[in-house]
Amino acid sequence: MTTLEQDRAVTAEVADAADRPLSGLDRCDSCGAQAYVRAVLSGSELLFCAHHARKHEAKLRPMAEVWHDETHKLQA
Prior knowledge:
Blueprint: H1 3-19, E1 37-41, E2 44-48, H2 50-60, E3 66-69
Antiparallel strand pairs: 1-2, 1-3
């Protein structure tokens, strides 16, 4: 696979991550609680509960290719 093909594959993965909703099976990488935020950095996915997303957002969001936030589901 060429570098261009690799770049396109990573771009497609990032786009898929941005569109795919989180489910009750997605767990926070920090504590294991249900994940409501997905951050994609350099093609790698990190999942966070609302608490840990707020804790790390200021540092991670500027570097993230995707910051998929579904914390609005907690207010329903």
